[in-house]
Design goal:
Layout (H helix, E strand, L loop, with lengths): L1 H33 L12 H19 L10 H15 L12 H4 L8 H7 L2 H10 L16 H13 L5 H10 L4
Length: about 180
């Protein structure tokens, strides 16, 4: 008698779980299709949503970059090649030292991270992975899909490391010394 009662309780609980799952799924679909969630870049995300996105991004980067072995970085030529790439492809979103935000960088949501802070918080492998693969829903492109190869991406990582303590005058000196390609 007791096992029959338990079986009925288990069936009832499972039935309610299925019903609640279906109702939850239908509610989620109704929310998505309602247009209620504002996707405008001018909308400030709630603290819980920001936490969710940042936590997921950081965990994903750490997981996917863990098996990447960084080469020896730091040569002056590498820094210069990385600078040229940065100036041409990155500076419009990641403001160079001492520069005011561009119209593009000011309009990004989420904002492009402050590079010195980012570089301090990430390994070379993580910087490479992000630069190579991009970050969804942020405006950060995947350079792996371009004609630039991994060597150029490592050059950019080298430049990012070298730029941590860079002042506006240092950036300007590089800019003057290295004409655009």
């Amino acid at each position: 008698m007791m096992s029959l009662f338990r079986a009925e309780v288990v069936k009832a609980v499972l039935a309610w779980l299925v019903i609640l799952g279906v109702l939850g799924g239908l509610g989620a679909l109704a929310f998505v299709y309602s247009g209620f969630f504002n996707v405008a870049a001018t909308t400030v995300d709630s603290a819980p949503l920001q936490w969710l996105l940042v936590t997921a991004r950081e965990a994903s980067i750490q997981l996917h970059a863990r098996d990447i072995e960084a080469p020896t970085l730091g040569g002056a030529e590498q820094v210069e090649r990385g600078f040229r790439f940065f100036r041409q492809e990155c500076a419009m979103c990641h403001n160079p030292p001492g520069r005011e935000p561009t119209a593009m960088s000011a309009g990004l949501n989420p904002k492009a991270p402050d590079l010195p802070e980012l570089v301090e918080d990430m390994t070379d492998a993580e910087l490479f992975w992000v630069t190579r693969n991009g970050i969804r829903f942020t405006g950060m492109p995947a350079w792996a899909t371009s004609s630039y190869g991994d060597e150029m991406i490592w050059d950019v990582v080298t430049y990012m490391r070298a730029s941590v303590d860079m002042q506006a005058a240092d950036y300007d000196a590089l800019d003057q010394r290295l004409p655009p390609d």
